[in-house]
Each structure stands twice: as C-alpha cells, then as structure tokens.
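Q: What residues go here?
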C-alpha cells in the first residue's frame, strides 16, 4: 500500500442480507408495485433497512472504517451496475429522464418488463440459488453515468456516522455475464466493450472519492469460473481493466482504494494476474478455494490479502481451529512477501439468513452447530482477533471445536438402516426400460392430443390459502378444517383447468408452503426455520430447510392430496414431487459427507413416494429439478463427477416407475446448452424448460443435441406480471416447432404459478390454451 492508502479493515464481510430481518424490503417493493405506497415511502423503507444493517454490523464488531460493505440493492446487484452504466437495451426505448438519469421506475421496468417488452433475462448467480438479471450489450450500446445511487447510499450512511465500503460488480465480470443484445452480430462478445465501460467506472470511483469513500469493493466472481471466454482473454481483460482503474492515484480526489473480491472459488490461473494489478487489496475465497502457492503469494507484496475463511454460502459453524491454522500460514507468507492479512467471509452473506438466535424453536444442540449472517460476522471478528492477539481468541476457538465434535456424535446424524439401503444399491436400481417401450405404453394409457397442455405445478397461493396455513400454525383452526379449506382450493384449481381446456392437470399445491420446505417437514433428517429467509431474486424470498442428518420417509407425503384431486377429473392428474438435487440445492445441506450420499438418501425417499402414487392411480408424476445446473462446479474439471451423481440420484428416484407411468421433470433459469447431455441423461419422459424470457433460445440446443423425448419449452414467463398475448405465444410455438419435432412438444408456462395473482394467471393460461389449439390446427392443415 502507498503512503496515501488508508489501512484496510482487519475484519470485514463481502456482503450482508439486504431484504430486512422481517422481509421489510419485500413488503415495501410489492406495495410500491401495487401502487399502495409512493416512491418516497419506498425510499424511506429502504433507508430504514440500510440504517438497521449499519447499526447491527457495528454492534457485532465491524467498527473499523470501511469494514461495512454497502451492498444494499432494491432488486439485483448486476442490475444496479447496468443502470449505473446506462446499459439499457434499445428494445426498451427511452428510459432515461431529461437529465440522462435512470430512476426507480426505469430500473423496475428492466427487472419486471412492461406491457410491450419482456424484462431482462434471469439466470443463476454462479453456483447459488440467487438469480441475477442478465445485461444485454451490443456494439452500439451507449454507456454513461446514469445513476449515482451507489454514491447516494454512501452519503446516507456517512450522514449517520458510518464510512462504508461501496460495492459494484467489477467490469470484467459485468461483461462476461452479459449477453449480446438483439441484432448484435453472431460473433459479437460483450467483453469487447471493456474499453467503453471503463471510463464510466472511473467516473463512479471519482465521485465516490469526492464523497469521502476510502475503499470500494469491485466484485469479480467470474474469475473463479471456467466460462466460454478463453482464460487468456479474461486475463488480458483483467490487466486492461485494472491498469485503468487502479492507474488513477489514490491521493487527493483520484479514487478510493480498491478491494477486488473473488468469491465462490479459487482464482487458479488468474491468481498471478490479479496479484499483478495495482489494486490495494484482494479478497480470496479460502473456504472453497485453496491457499495460493508461495510463488503466487509473492505477487501480493504491498497489498492486503483478505482471507475469506468463513463460508458465506452455508450455515454450518466455522471450524475456527482449522481457519486459525490457515491464518498462521498466510501470516507467515505475508511476513515473507510483504503483504498484510485481513479476514472476511468467503462470499457475501446475503446467501444465508440473519440470525440463528431468533430460531428458538430449533433444538438447542442443532442451533449450536449453526452460524447465520450475524454469527458469521462474529466468526470473522474472532479470527481477526486471533491475528492480533491469538490467546484472546482461544476460548471462542475451543468452544467451536467442542460444538463440531458434538455434532458428529448426535443421534440421527448417522442412521444404520438408511446407510445400509444406499450401500445395497445396484446398477439396475438406476435404469428404466427403453424410452420407445415407455412411450408406447404411455400413449395407450393417456390418449393425449398433439402439443398437450399442462402447467408446471403450483397455482397462485391466495391470501386466503396463506391465512388458513397461518391460522393452523397458531392453533386457530384444526387439521380437519384446514384440510377442508385446502380441498376447496384444489377443486377450484381443477375446475379452472377443466374450463380452460388443459390436457394434463395439477392440483395446484395449496397445502405447500414451499416446494422444498414441504418435503423437509415430512422427511426425517431435516429441520426448518421460522425467520430464515434469504433472497432468491427481487422481492422473492425462500426459507431453505436445514438438512442435518440421514434422510428417510416415515409416511406418504403427497398421496392423499393427489388422490383427492384425481377423483375430481377424468383427465390425467400430475403428482408433484421435488427432485433430490433441488432439495439439496435449496436447503442448507450437511457438510460432513459427500453430497452424492445425501442425494441418494433423498432419492430413495422419493422413490417410495412415487411407488405409492402409482398404487393410488396417478399416471403422470413430475419430479422437479430446476436446480440441476445450480450445483454445477464452476471449474470444468470438477463437473463430470457432479453430473454423474446428480443424474444418478434423479434416476434412482424415478427408475422404479412402471412403463405406463409418465415421468416429467422441470428445469428453469439455467444455461441449458452447458448441461444438455445431463438433461438427456435424466431419462425423463417429458422435460419442461424455461424459454419464454430468453425467447426460445433453448430450442437451438435441443435441436443440435437431437433431444428425443418429450419437451415443453415454456411459453409464459411467470416471473413477470405481464400477460402474454395469444399471438405472442403462437410465435413462440412456431419457433419451437421449427426446431423440435411437434410430436415431442408440450405447451406449458416457464415455471410454477405460486407467486402470481389469479386474474393475470387465468388470462395468461387462457391465451396459452388457445395458442396451442391454433398451433394444432396449423399442424393438422400441414399434415
């Protein structure tokens, strides 16, 4: 660090939950979108959340200047950066105001779309369950400083006595995660616009420095992943970007010191490249990634190496003794090579809930094994204390070791009968008969028309449904009354689908609070939280369950509801299950054994459920795997092993089904081309896939692969409130038919309808069914 560089904080985190401890942001956003509160009221709610976060983090020990990151967002951090850069796709027209700024309404238009335009595409953020909005960049995209919200939020914190560390997605990651805009040449790469975005980044840094910011955090997680862009091109982009941004002196009004953060894995071959940049600090993920070699560490001389030793992505208590040993090695290297050492979380902590101490309903033993965001701050502070005064941290380190030891010995963590069943598995347990035999049996059983219509599973969960569940939990109604209310809703959903003309029906899942939590509550080895909300995207929050022990199914879970729904209709009714990989991906999963073992335990529980559904007369069963790509390792060398066990776990769950039982699966918001072989390997009879927001991009991958079984590329984007017209859906189906044989195609929405309202849902589904009828007529005329 130069003489003008302010010292980096010794303890920090890379981010913190931003929705509020009681989902205050979600409630404010949805009230604003519904027209119930004003812009000023929304801004006031956001400031209240930010101020509460600042005070809480200072109270937990992040009291040094710049230790608290400014990572608040109204919707998404990638969208924040796109709006700051003015990166608005031309298809949206003029969203800038007269002063060239993009306000909140423009911001939300990009996120949620409008009557004329679909929103930005959404996809997974690295190997997490968070979804980011994908910027659209073309050769002619105009970049300009269009929002100074990052500066305004810094000044707001400063006005309350907190000097924070502002946050932006770094320029290399921003462009690597972008997609070519409509009309861009086929060979166009958004990364080619790097030199055009850097002046805007530099202008933002200058404004932050003028406002008093001492440090800024530029997030570059793309550097830890193997992307389509060659590594050498990425290295060149890093060098170019940070020679510009770090080339401005820190002294005077130049810029803040730069913390380049690289979460979600090790930098690998990019380590030396990053070390050679002129940034003042680099945050390394040393939880998933390895400590760099001595040669690579030598390159960090003069910098601060921020050791990401506390897992920001899962909730298990840190092995502080092991982390302290890593710090000893890093500190010795720092002494040798001339760099400082600080401590942080490995990633932003917005992937975990706020505070485990609020989960008083959990068993005390289980609670002692866990660390939510607030506890992770405590772990970071303890390790930073260890760096300065090892003996002062000794008691906390020893107590963590005792807790970890108690977990290994606790009842239910290892159950012999569960492990004996997985150990006895044979190759035949993972395979069904040939697809041609199954297809013939299913045609004879189901008698479906061309382009059959269905939905993905859930229907809107009304205030009445949620209220009934709340009254049941409070003891205001009994289980008998609750069952009656849920059956009334199921009948409503069946009657609506019959009236609209759907071919394969669903019961709507009113009894389910969440597609994973519902199963977690009915399987041994899980527990659930009350306040453990995390952000999935925008205002959408989930409560991941805690998978802490060996898994088994004590009793049937979905069979009574499916049986009742099937009794209401002569049409096929889909039984709805969540797949083993998705149950793992959307839970906080035990870290004391291989994921493959845990996945097989869950798969066997689902296999038993499928057998009971078949016995009850259910002929179509969907096993959702929307998170199949989510757990895909970021390094290609690690991907084959993951895809092997993840595909096998799905096949283990479904391989016991009879030929005449049609097995469906569903995937959403993934880059499907990267895992098309794995999707094919699932051997599902029908696969439904998100496709509406990307305007049917997936059909090119399906065609190129020669995908040979049933497939339903989605035609209705349920993550936006807009109602697609019949004509719009017909165009999507026309595109699909041009690339995939019509005999294989199904017509369905992108995803479940739980978060939508009934008015928009009914209108959209009516258009979907009518579009399918029109497409069938075209097929018949051309036959």
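A:
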């Amino acid at each position: 660090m130069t003489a003008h560089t302010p010292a980096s904080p010794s303890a920090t985190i890379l981010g913190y939950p931003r929705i509020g401890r009681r989902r205050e942001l979600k409630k404010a956003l949805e009230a604003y979108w519904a027209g119930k509160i004003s812009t000023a009221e929304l801004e006031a709610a956001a400031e209240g959340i930010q101020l509460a976060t600042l005070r809480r983090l200072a109270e937990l020990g992040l009291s040094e200047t710049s230790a608290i990151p400014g990572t608040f967002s109204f919707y998404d951090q990638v969208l924040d950066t796109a709006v700051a850069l003015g990166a608005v796709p031309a298809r949206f027209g003029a969203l800038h105001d007269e002063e060239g700024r993009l306000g909140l309404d423009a911001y939300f238009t990009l996120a949620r779309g409008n009557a004329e335009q679909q929103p930005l595409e959404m996809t997974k953020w690295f190997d997490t369950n968070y979804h980011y909005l994908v910027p659209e960049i073309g050769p002619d995209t105009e970049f300009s400083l269009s929002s100074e919200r990052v500066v305004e939020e810094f000044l707001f914190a400063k006005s309350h006595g907190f000097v924070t560390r502002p946050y932006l997605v770094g320029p290399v990651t921003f462009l690597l995660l972008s997609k070519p805009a409509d009309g861009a040449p086929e060979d166009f790469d958004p990364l080619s616009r790097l030199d055009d975005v850097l002046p805007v980044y530099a202008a933002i840094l200058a404004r932050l420095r003028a406002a008093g910011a001492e440090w800024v955090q530029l997030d570059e997680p793309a550097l830890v992943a193997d992307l389509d862009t060659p590594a050498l091109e990425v290295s060149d982009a890093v060098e170019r970007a940070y020679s510009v941004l770090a080339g401005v002196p820190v002294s005077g009004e130049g810029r803040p010191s730069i913390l380049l953060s690289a979460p979600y894995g090790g930098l690998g071959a990019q380590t030396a490249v990053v070390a050679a940049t002129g940034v003042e600090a680099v945050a390394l993920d040393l939880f998933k990634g390895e400590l760099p070699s001595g040669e690579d560490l030598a390159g960090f001389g003069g910098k601060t190496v921020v050791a990401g030793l506390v897992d920001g992505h899962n909730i298990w208590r840190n092995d502080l003794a092991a982390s302290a040993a890593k710090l000893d090695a890093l500190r010795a290297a720092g002494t040798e090579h001339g760099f400082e050492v600080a401590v942080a979380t490995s990633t932003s902590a917005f992937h975990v809930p706020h505070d485990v101490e609020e989960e008083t309903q959990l068993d005390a033993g289980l609670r002692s094994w866990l660390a939510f965001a607030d506890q992770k701050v405590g772990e970071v502070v303890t390790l930073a204390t260890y760096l300065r005064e090892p003996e002062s941290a000794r008691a906390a380190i020893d107590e963590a070791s005792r807790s970890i030891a108690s977990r290994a010995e606790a009842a239910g963590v290892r159950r012999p009968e569960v492990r004996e069943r997985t150990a006895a598995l044979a190759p035949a347990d993972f395979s069904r008969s040939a697809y041609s035999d199954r297809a013939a049996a299913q045609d004879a059983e189901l008698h479906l028309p061309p382009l059959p219509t269905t939905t993905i599973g859930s229907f809107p969960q009304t205030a009445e449904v949620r209220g009934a569940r709340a009254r049941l939990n409070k003891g205001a109604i009994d289980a008998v009354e609750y069952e009656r209310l849920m059956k009334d809703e199921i009948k409503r959903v069946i009657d609506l689908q019959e009236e609209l003309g759907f071919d394969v029906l669903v019961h709507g899942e009113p009894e389910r609070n969440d597609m994973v939590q519902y199963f977690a509550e009915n399987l041994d080895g899980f527990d659930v939280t009350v306040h453990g909300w995390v952000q999935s995207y925008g205002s959408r929050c989930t409560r991941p369950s805690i998978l802490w022990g060996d898994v088994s199914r004590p009793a049937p879970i979905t069979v009574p509801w499916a049986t009742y729904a099937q009794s209401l209709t002569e049409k096929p009714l889909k039984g709805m299950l969540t797949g083993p990989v998705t149950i793992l991906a959307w839970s906080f999963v035990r870290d004391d054994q291989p994921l493959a073992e845990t996945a097989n335990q869950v798969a066997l529980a689902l296999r038993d459920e499928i057998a009971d559904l078949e016995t009850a007369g259910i002929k179509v069963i969907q096993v959702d795997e929307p998170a199949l790509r989510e757990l895909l390792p970021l390094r290609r060398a690690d991907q084959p092993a993951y895809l092997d066990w993840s595909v096998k776990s799905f096949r283990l769950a479904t391989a016991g089904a009879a030929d005449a039982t049609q097995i469906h699966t569903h995937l959403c918001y993934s880059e499907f081309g990267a895992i098309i072989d794995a999707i094919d390997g699932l051997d599902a009879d029908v696969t439904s896939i998100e496709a509406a927001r990307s305007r049917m991009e997936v059909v090119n991958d399906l065609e190129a692969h020669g995908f040979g079984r049933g497939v339903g590329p989605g035609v209705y984007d349920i993550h936006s409130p807009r109602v697609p017209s019949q004509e719009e859906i017909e165009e999507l189906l026309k595109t699909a038919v041009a690339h995939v044989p019509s005999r294989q195609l199904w017509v369905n929405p992108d995803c479940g309808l739980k978060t939508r309202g009934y008015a928009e849902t009914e209108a959209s589904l009516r258009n979907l069914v009518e579009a399918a009828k029109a497409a069938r007529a075209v097929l018949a005329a051309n036959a």
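A: Context that may help when evaluating the design: The two ends are 73 Å apart (CA to CA). The chain has 27 helices and 21 strands.
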